[in-house]
Amino acid sequence: MDDIFGIPAPLLFGQLLLGLINGAFYALLSLGLAVIFGMLNVINFAHGAQFMMGAFVAWMLLEYAGLNYWWALILAPLLVGVFGVILERTMIARLYKLDHLYGLLLTFGLGLIIEGIFRNQYGSSGLPYRIPPQLSGAWDLGFMYMPVYRGWVVAVAVVMCIGTWLVIEKTKIGSYLRASTENAALVQAFGINVPRLMTLTYGAGVALAAFAGVLAAPIYSVNPQMGSNLIIIVFAVVVIGGMGSILGSVITGFGLGIIEGLTKVFYPEASATVIFVVMAIVLLARPAGLFGRA
């Protein structure tokens, strides 16, 4: 295929694919953050550590229990989600009536503790996690080869994002959640157990992060820093999309991943900062974010 804008087509489409992969992880992680902040008003800075825990639990299930990738996709989010429920009940629930800063400081400290425990136990070098045989190989698209696993990650991320949005916006439990954020006392007066609903919401947001961690394990090496490397970018995605906006997080996550990929082709020097430049521009124009409410 001929060059496009003076760039070899395989290079351009390859970077677009990488951007789409990164966007899938940005979308999944920011989705979990948006669910937790939108429903609980907690800025969960431990989200990166919980993403890392999902990858490590998948590795442990394979290494110690002999359970493969497909089992890990189910069990790792459940196990890490239960861990999130315990955190919410024992610590985070005590901060709901306080300023957001207290929740941010608590979860930031928890994230550092979790990362430190894993780094002390497993070191800083990455641990390999094999791509499952069913998803190995690549598709020949004519203009480039697409690894099957990377295509799978994008497809699953899209399905999870749409599914989460449908649950929040179109189901009865989603309406209870949205009503609880507006007037928890009124919802509880109708017999809804609001504290339990909030606990399950936090656990679901953590499980989404762990699910993304399992997807990331075969692509990135499983290491304690894998979450901290992403969390700042993911927070930028959430701010650009609008704090608490589910749709904003999904669209912005994929969009910024593609923008980042294109920047690596046309102006590589700016690829590490382009997301934060976009964030500054958006905040100047719309302080509540693209899809957020003031």
Produce the secondary structure layout.
Elements: H1 9-40, H2 47-65, H3 69-90, H4 100-122, E1 138-140, E2 145-147, H5 148-170, H6 172-182, H7 184-189, H8 194-216, H9 228-241, H10 246-266, H11 274-285
Antiparallel strand pairs: 1-2
Helix pairs in contact: 1-5, 1-8, 1-9, 1-10, 2-3, 2-4, 2-8, 3-8, 5-6, 9-10, 9-11
Helical content class: over 70%
Spans with pLDDT under 50 lasting ≥5 residues? none
Integer count of domains: 1
Strand order of the main beta sheet, please? 1-2
Number of strands: 2
What is the oligomer described by this structure?
single chain
Count of helical stretches: 11
- In terms of structural class, how would the helical and strand content be classed? mainly alpha
User: What is the radius of gyration?
Assistant: 19 Å
